[in-house]
Specification:
translocase; ATP hydrolysis activity; binds adenosine-5'-triphosphate; 20 strands; ATP-binding; 9 helices; Rossmann fold; alpha+beta; P-loop_NTPase
């Protein structure tokens, strides 16, 4: 295993008309599992393809360990890639598929190759499939084989390009756990690309969020969730998405209040952390996660009145759509079941209030 370093990586297409990746720097430590997430077209696959050597960077440098591999051919890089569509050879057996990478990249004896394939197949629980052909396998089995083929090579770096997207929801959860187990056992250095923020949050030691080819934030999933650097990250991480409200900042007789244009949201700011962040701002964007909102009893001081528009049950929770701002969602316990049209009072702890610059979207906290 080894460290992977990307320095100021840039990729242009169509003679510079499209900038798919813009000044991306990232270091993946030895044994670190980094997930890269972002909306469609943000440059995830292009980044991965550059690391694999399938795409040549327009500028910047890629190193694996101490070696600069920017100009090294794909087949000479010690990386293994696992694709969404499995990329298995259809006319080879599972065993031959798994052994193929070994034959290409090492000079092991036939017996040693066979031993390593068997050992990996056992670890992946696919020994009984070794003589079968890909067409005979289910999607989940194919992905296990593709993973096994990558693992058997013992590469310096693993690259995963949305490997679970073609699997149904249940299998996806199983495979997620499986990949995490392998990660714990083998301590692999990996970059795992997905458009699914939940997958990225649960699987990564570290999550990297891209938008428009640019790195937005990188950090431990919990820390990114708690302290999004900007509005984009706040909205992208977490489900349902963070609520945003454009508010004016009013100070009168030593009292600071945040009020939205419609006057449906009025919040008294007493927390010094928020007061400091609001200094010098007339307008800001407030961010509130749905799960930070609670429905409180009448008479609770500082609570915000709201009318319930829709109650959406999702198992253990209810999503309450409230008439605050455009579409304000509160995620509450399923036992909290107001009727549509009902007036409720909601509260948000001051520690759960996020503040963003109204123009740049940068966090003010
Ligand atoms: P998705 O989740 O949809 O796969 P992505 O984040 O992986 O998206 P990329 O595939 O890396 O995004 O694409 C980034 C940008 O570069 C997009 O605007 C895309 O259209 C463009 N792009 C990617 N490959 C090429 C290419 N070969 N030629 C021209 N433009 C390309």
């Amino acid at each position: 295993m080894a460290t992977l370093t990307l320095e100021s990586l840039r990729k242009e297409f169509d003679g510079g008309q499209i900038v798919a990746v813009d000044d991306l720097s990232l270091e993946v430590a030895d044994g670190e599992f980094v997930t890269v997430v972002g909306p469609s077209g943000c440059g995830k696959s292009t980044t991965l393809r550059m690391v694999a050597g399938l795409e040549r960077p327009t500028a910047g440098r890629i190193s694996i360990g101490d070696e600069d591999v920017t100009d090294v051919h794909a087949r000479d890089r010690d990386v293994a890639m696992v694709f969404q569509n499995y990329a298995l050879y259809p006319h080879k057996t599972v065993e031959q598929n798994m052994a193929f990478g070994l034959r290409m990249s090492t000079d092991l004896s036939k017996d040693e190759r066979r031993r390593r394939v068997r050992e990996t197949a056992e670890m992946m629980d696919i020994e009984e499939l070794l003589d079968q052909q890909p067409a005979e396998l289910s999607g989940g089995q194919k992905q296990r084989v593709a993973l096994g083929r990558a693992i058997v090579r013992e590469p310096d770096v693993f690259l995963f390009d949305e490997p679970l997207s073609n699997l149904d929801a249940k299998l996806r959860t199983t495979m997620r756990t499986e990949i995490q187990r392998l990660q714990n056992e083998l301590d692999i250095t990996a970059v795992y690309v997905t458009h699914d923020q939940e997958e990225a949050m649960t699987m990564g030691d570290r999550i990297v969020i891209l938008n428009d080819g640019e790195l937005q934030q990188s950090g431990a999933p919990k820390s990114v969730y708690r302290n999004p650097r900007n509005r984009f990250v706040g909205g992208f991480v977490g489900s349902p998405s963070m609520n945003f409200l454009a508010v004016g900042v009013f100070t009168d007789a030593g009292r600071t209040t945040l009020v939205d244009e419609a006057g449906t949201f009025e919040y008294d700011v007493t927390d010094q952390r928020l007061l400091d962040a609001l200094q010098g701002h007339d307008e800001v964007t407030v961010g509130i996660r749905p799960e930070s909102v609670t429905v409180v009893d009448a008479g609770t001081s500082g609570a915000i009145p709201a009318t319930v528009e829709v109650v959406e049950p999702v198992g253990a929770d209810n999503y309450l759509h409230l008439d605050i701002g455009d579409d304000f969602i509160a995620r509450v316990d399923a036992a909290v079941e107001p009727e549509p049209g009902e007036e409720v009072l909601v509260d948000v702890p001051s520690s759960a209030i996020h503040l963003f610059d109204a123009e740049t979207g940068e966090s003010l906290l």
